[in-house]
Amino acid sequence: MVPLVLREAVLLEREWRILVTSRRLDAAARLTGSVAGCLIHQAMNDSKAQQLLRTKLGDKYEEGATADLLRALEHLPLAITQAAAYILLRIIR
Prior knowledge:
By secondary structure, the chain is mainly alpha-helical. Helices cover 55% and strands 0% of the residues. 6% of the residues are buried.
């Protein structure tokens, strides 16, 4: 069950845009009120996932270190983008 406070916050103002990510369509539909309000993104193939990670990491990209990472991220574009941002943040420190 979605907490009432969270559901009210999402539905409070229709002019707002809130991104909710979930691997479960039923959970996203309960939160947004219907499946129609959900965008479904499929996993990328390995080649596209590597290309995305390479683009995000630039010269910090290491070919041999990506296969396990991409598999762990299930080739999902949002997960790859977030992981790349985290990696770059850690390298800068």
